[in-house]
Amino acid sequence: MTQEELICAFHAMWDNYPEQVRLIDKTFLVLAGNKAYTAVGVPCESFWVPVEGETDYYIHYTNGLNEAIARLTKKDE
User: Fold this and answer.
1) Cα 69 to the center of its chain, rounded Å
2) Which CA distances in Å does 25 have to 11, 48, 53, 67, 70?
3) Which pLDDT value is given to residue 23?
4) 20 lies in which domain range?
5) How many structural domains does the chain have?
6) Which of 67, 66, 73 lies closest to 35, judged by CA?
7) Rounded to a whole number, what is the distance in angstroms from the first to the last CA of the chain?
8) Exposure letters 24-61 (e unless 16+ CB within 10 A, then b)
9) What is the rounded CA–CA span in Å between residue 19 and residue 69?
10) What confidence tens digit (pLDDT) does each residue in 9-28 have?
11) Which pLDDT tens digit goes with each residue over 53-73?
């Protein structure tokens, strides 16, 4: 799979996930981010999962960001 194909597959799988998700390479360069990541760009609790069949790529996703943003938004009101 080419990097371009992998990025397209990443977007198809993760763009609508409600928390931040990133596709990174083995040097930790962010190659793509889902909609939640590109909208905010602030990580919380994060996890690294290798892409099956690929040695140079990982899925990096974040949980808890939406709750953190909701708390910050309430403080500003």
Assistant:
1) 16
2) 15, 11, 14, 28, 31
3) 92
4) 3-76
5) 1
6) 66
7) 48
8) beeeeeeebbbebbeeeeebeeeeeeebeeeeebbbbb
9) 11
10) 999 999 999 888 889 888 88
11) 998 999 988 787 777 777 767
